[in-house]
Amino acid sequence: MNTKKISLYGVLIALALILSYVETQIPAFVAIPGMKLGLTNIVVLVTLYYLDEKSAMAINVLRIIIVSVLFGTAMSFAFSLVGGMLSTVMMIVLKRIGKFRIIGVSAVGGVTHNIGQIITAMVLLGTKAIAWYLPVLWITGVFSGILIGVIGGMVYERLSKINIDEK
Amino acid sequence: MNKSLFGKNDVKLVVGLSVVALVICAVLMLFKQDGKQVVVSVDGVVVSTYSLNDNGTYEIEGYNKGLNTLVIENGVAYMSDASCPDHLCMHMGKISKVGQSIICLPNRVVVEIRGSKDVEPEYDTVS
User: Fold this and answer.
1) How many angstroms away from the CA of A102 is the closest CA of chain B?
2) For B31, which DSSP code?
3) CATH number for the domain harbouring residue A85
4) Exposed, middle or buried, B56 (CB in 10 Å: 0-12/13-18/19+)?
5) Is residue A153 part of a domain?
6) Which H or E run includes B67?
7) Which residue among A31, A100, A127 places its CB closest to the CB of B91?
8) B26/chain A closest Cα distance in angstroms
9) pLDDT tens digits for range B48-88
10) Closest approach of chain A CAs to the CA of B10, in angstroms?
């Protein structure tokens, strides 16, 4: 790993952390727990396209660990880890299929993130009642996923015009 | 929106995902029945059961001494107060249908509506 890559990773993780924090400051949608914009997924998505699968995974895992240590609890760690891993894996799979572009990949990421969180809640709380939130979180996952895909796509477009190796 | 961001397949994918969500919605709606019982559990263990017809205010001691106040009146149940900082459970509204629930994550309290007095076996298994 060279210096350039190390600093690039650092910048990306810092960005993901800030977006995590920004998201906690948005009071909207409090009515349904787990309903989130998933701003940090912009970073994961851009990393997936701009760098590679391994980096996207690594940055997401590190981000989840750091955010949990800073603002979270063991409970929130479990939630973000399962949701984050499931969505990252699904996005990687979808991107590998090669038939979908960034918005489709991101929409599936949004949905699977929420599914992961619901599964975690069902396991941790030992109740199936939470499945009731599935339709709502599914829909919000699709829409936030599309939104994040649009933003991520625009960021990626601009980034891809810069060749970091030449600077 | 820029065209390079999404293609035909993405539109199909999003439509497909929305359809699945609607199907889940429809299935859940179809099985919606008026509930009879309010079951309170803390950390996965059932601590108390009330009838939806028993009007009253109940204190629930959750995980880590967290407190939630459950109100049952006129066939609906809702959380009127909670010791946790986010008060999410208080925003979850009033519940009365089988399967609906109010969940307070910090206190690990789950308030669930059930149909009859029989304890459904599927809820007993710790998943």
Assistant:
1) 6
2) T
3) 1.10.1760.20
4) exposed
5) yes
6) strand B67-73
7) A31
8) 9
9) 888 888 888 988 888 888 888 999 988 889 888 888 777 77
10) 5
Instruction: Assign residue B58 the CATH number of its domain.
Output: 2.60.320.10
Rounded distance between C-alpha atoms, residue B50 and residue B56, angstroms: 10
Give chain A's contact residues with B (Cβ, < 8 Å): 30-33, 75, 99-104, 107-108, 111, 121-123, 125-132, 134-135, 138-139, 142, 146, 149-150, 153-154, 157
DSSP A101-131: -HHHHHHHHHHHHHHHHHHHHHHHHT-SGGG
Residue for token digits 């990626």? A156
Distance (Å) of CA A72 to CA A42, A67, A80, A160, B106: 21, 6, 10, 34, 11
What is the per-residue pLDDT across A137-153, written as a single tens digit (0 to 9) for each?
A: 898 899 999 999 999 99
- Which residue segment(s) compose the domain that B56 sits in? 37-114
**What is d(CA B91, CA A15) in angstroms, rounded to the nearest whole number?**
31
Handedness of CA A79, A82, A85, A86 (dihedral sign): negative
Domain for residue B122, yes or no? no
Interchain contact B44–A (C-beta under 8 A): yes
Q: Minimal Cα–Cα distance from B108 to chain A, Å?
A: 7
Distance of CA A164 to CAs A8, A167, B90, B92, Å? 9, 6, 49, 48
Which residues in chain A have Cβ-Cβ distances shorter than 8 Å to B112?
127, 129
Instruction: Tell me the residues of chain B between 62 and 91 that have a Cβ less than 8 Å away from chain A.
Output: 86, 88, 91
User: In the structure encoding, which two tokens stand for residue A83, read together?
Assistant: 């949701």
**pTM, rounded to two decimals:** 0.71
